[in-house]
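<derive_structure_tokens>
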Amino acid sequence: MRTGIPNRNYFSIIPVTEWLRFCSYLKSNLITASKLLVIAALLLTITGLAHAHTYEAESAEMSDAYIENIEIGYFGSGYAWCRHRGSLRWNITTTQDGVYELVFRYALRRGKHNLNVYVDNELAQYKQTFTNTGSWSTWGESRLRVFLSAGTHTVKLYNRWNSRLFVDSLTVLPLSMAQPGVAVGDNLLYEAEEALLNRVKIKNKKPGFTGTGYIKYRKFASADFAIETALPGEYDFKFRYMQHKKRWWLAIFVDGILDQVVRPLKTVNNSWSEFTLNRSYTF
């Protein structure tokens, strides 16, 4: 009997032209995770089998990068000086399927650098942002959420466009599979910027958003929302959006299965609108 145990579901929204690529990704990863989800959450909460693990820069495989220890504030025996077109590649291990946060610890005296992140030789994030920390001895973090299956993986940080960047470490942090919903009356609000994002940038220039910002879609992009439905019945999922230049076709997957294709109407004068997906659950 499953009374009182929440069911967790995955909503993935992608441009319709990317069905094949993301359908393959969802079938191989998210469906498996959905079947194991409640068990994995209990293991995380009760026995704490999943832990964050930090991989020092000096343990990475490097190209056009080298280790030094002149500045202060680093951990381990040093940090990597990653040059223009340099890269660091770590071999990592995860104990269970789930969402993980990749935390890059770095220092950058001025400006802003954009680096590409690859997971298992596939582009996971185009132009991951590294903002300046104010000095070469002041360390900050750049974070990226990815889905990883249990086993061994590679994470590569590639400095394609910029001058030097100091990289101290990579921390792989396991996260709860369900996003924390914010109570709004009788409803739960899930912010887009808290979703598992791929090739999507978080922005905050357009007024009227909630939370800390909104996500801007592009080609090859997707956003996965992990939510909880505690009781059987009908649910309305309202997606708040802005679309003023052209109408995008979007494919919506639920638990890794294509649910429907939608084409939201254009919005007027940078205003926000909503479209609704209705679902029934009888678990």
Q: What stands out?
A: Confidence is low (pLDDT under 50) at residues 1-8, 15-49. The CA atoms of residues 115 and 127 lie 5 Å apart. The two ends are 10 Å apart (CA to CA).
